[in-house]
Amino acid sequence: MSPQQDRLPPIVDDPAQALEHIREYGLALLGGQMSASQLRQARDATYAAAEEDKRLGRKADAFGLDYGEHNVRVWNILNRHPVFSDLVQLPVVIELLRQVIGWPALLGNISANIAEPGSQGGVLHPDQVFVPKPWPAEPQGFNCAYVLDDFTADNGATEVVPQSHLAGDDADGETLALHAVPVIVPAGTLVVFESRLWHRTGMNKSQAPRAALFAWYTTPIYRTQENWFLSLDDAVVENASDELLTLLAYKTQGFGLVYGRSPR
Fold this sequence. Notes:
The chain is α+β, with helices and mostly antiparallel strands. The protein has one domain: q2cbj1_9rhob like domain (Jelly Rolls). The chain is 26% helix and 18% strand. It contains 8 helices and 10 strands. The strands form 2 sheets. The protein has a 7-stranded mixed sheet.
């Protein structure tokens, strides 16, 4: 392990250890949470969705966070395959979500990022840039990256700045960028991090693409990035569990009521 990698937490399979790592490092690395079948289905469906978007001429932007043309974003991926609905509500994800930002929470979006060969990477940022300053003492969001291809030093692995969640809302991104570390982990790993952690897509200097999913959760006071009420297929909603309906705001407490009651 390189000196840079020594700054990252080890891969664990215990949610309690992961929670400690999130608090110390701003992120945790979890192994053994996705089955081999889920990993295979998610990877195949992600690349198939990217090909479908290309064939249909869909152009997805990434809020100005990508450099160049070789970071492929796939939006509204819940419609593409049932495995994605399963992944956003993995027991360990829900358990950590409850601990980090509380419940009920909203699924802001789940999208795929494919870093193709030649990708120039992306802009270093924390995810809660939309939160008015001064930031609250606790994170307002939670991100789970599902690693679908091995993350290596050369293929555009997500880069993070460990402990940057403690830097405050006036942190200097250029200075923090000097301390960015690639997250080198095998396919099937979950990279979970709170919304104040600075991170970015790495440069893909290899000859093969690498894919990952990013599920973004927030406390209920923030509007979701994806408008689920307009974008979701009926089948996704009809087959959703109570937890998923809550994450999608079809079941709600306090906000989004209809005649004073939850829509479902």
